[in-house]
Design brief:
Elements lengths: L21 E9 L2 E9 L8 E5 L7 H4 L3 H9 L3 E5 L17 H17 L8 E6 L2 H11 L3 E7 L8 H11 L4 H19 L4 H7 L1 H4 L2 H6 L7 H11 L4 E2 L4 E2 L5 H6 L5 E6 L7 H10 L1 H4 L2 E6 L16 H5 L9 H10 L3
Parallel strand pairs: 3-4, 3-5, 5-6, 6-9, 9-10
Antiparallel strand pairs: 1-2, 2-4, 7-8
Helix pairs in contact: 2-15, 3-4, 5-6, 6-7
Length: about 350
């Protein structure tokens, strides 16, 4: 049960079989460790700018496994370079991976990458854009508000201000055919666990209040069958109690004053959503973007009816759909073209 308290929006990535692109390995320093990245360049032209690829949650092996290669090619077809790197303790990056890295610290990491690209005179570094999926929907607005020279932002499966596992949990239970009454009971216990943990209640009290939740098959699988120990719970609780918390919804606030942050974004934004996203409530995010970005900058929204959180064609959008049914990793028609064509307008 413990791991669900800290989950943000998980995004998976695969490499693509596209042809070779011009690549250059570049390391940069952040918090006294070296992070390993790769610049991808258009083949036959000087880049108009460089787009930083900002990851979602979880560990990465992006450089070695050539993550987002199809997306990076789509960006280079519009005349831009890309820069992507592995998180601390992942791939050839030094340091220790921290699953609980704050989005504020991740934003500082992105800004460190920008400064390095500019200092080294990397082709395209005169114009900086951002591409980001899921958790990056918290990171990139912080970057834009802090580093005032971001030219554009491509948001894929963006998020609202609060923790989103409760939505993921409920939507996936629906896919498995769990009854409405059972979903309501389990969701209530999940929310109770958030509230009690943040309020400093004991491990024993939280366990007793969530007995049905801890027996749930989806959650058991999600947590890899591991039950959290008292020591693990208390270590997490100590950190969790420091986080911003919304007493009305009972959810962690990942970015304080998020609406104001979005309203202060003045560069053009392309927002892309999969309508079968069962990780993040994309409709709520779309409404938030319209309310904030839509009033203060040039906002373009594109949705794909048969795409999941990671913008692959799917049937249900379930968390384990691709794993269980061995579906092909196909992008929805027009997804890559949407990125290329929109970028061509950013000159």
């Amino acid at each position: 049960m413990y791991r669900i308290l800290v989950l943000l929006a998980i995004s998976f990535s695969i490499s693509s079989a596209h042809g070779q692109l011009k690549e250059k390995i570049i390391d940069f320093n952040f918090e006294k460790v070296s992070l390993n990245g790769v610049v991808t360049l258009p083949k036959n032209a000087s880049p108009k700018g460089i787009v930083l690829i900002v990851h979602g949650s979880g560990r990465t092996n992006a450089v070695a496994q050539k993550w987002y290669l199809d997306i990076r090619k789509a960006i280079t077809l519009a005349g831009y370079a890309t820069f992507m790197w592995d998180k601390m303790g992942c791939g050839n990056s030094q340091g220790t991976f921290n699953y609980h890295q704050t989005v504020q610290n991740s934003a500082s990491e992105v800004i460190a990458a920008i400064h390095h690209l500019k200092k080294q005179g990397i082709p395209g570094a005169h114009t900086i854009g951002l591409w980001g999926v899921s958790r990056a929907g918290w990171i990139n607005p912080i970057v834009i508000n802090t580093y005032k020279d971001i030219k554009f932002w491509i948001s894929v499966s963006g998020v609202d201000a609060k923790e989103n596992f409760q939505y993921l949990f409920e939507e996936n239970l629906k896919i498995y055919g769990v009854s409405k009454d059972s979903i309501a009971l389990l969701s209530k216990e999940l929310n109770t666990s958030y509230r009690m943990t943040h309020a400093g209640k004991s491990y024993e009290a939280v366990m007793n209040a969530t007995k049905n939740l801890r027996q749930n098959a989806f959650l058991h699988r999600f947590n890899n069958g591991r039950a959290s120990t008292k020591e693990q719970f208390e270590a997490y609780q100590k950190q969790f109690m420091k986080e911003e918390f919304d007493s009305v919804s009972g959810l962690q606030i990942n970015v304080k004053n998020f609406e104001s942050l979005l309203s202060n974004v003045h560069c053009p934004v392309l927002a892309i959503f999969g309508e079968k996203d069962k990780n993040v409530d994309w409709q709520k995010t779309q409404e938030l973007y319209t309310k904030t970005l839509g009033k203060h900058t040039e906002l373009t929204v594109k949705t794909f009816p048969d795409a999941n959180h990671n913008l692959f064609k799917c049937n249900t959008g379930g968390f384990y759909e691709f794993e269980d049914h061995k579906l092909p990793w196909h992008r929805p028609d027009g997804f890559l073209e949407t990125i290329t064509n929109w970028l061509k307008t950013q000159e």
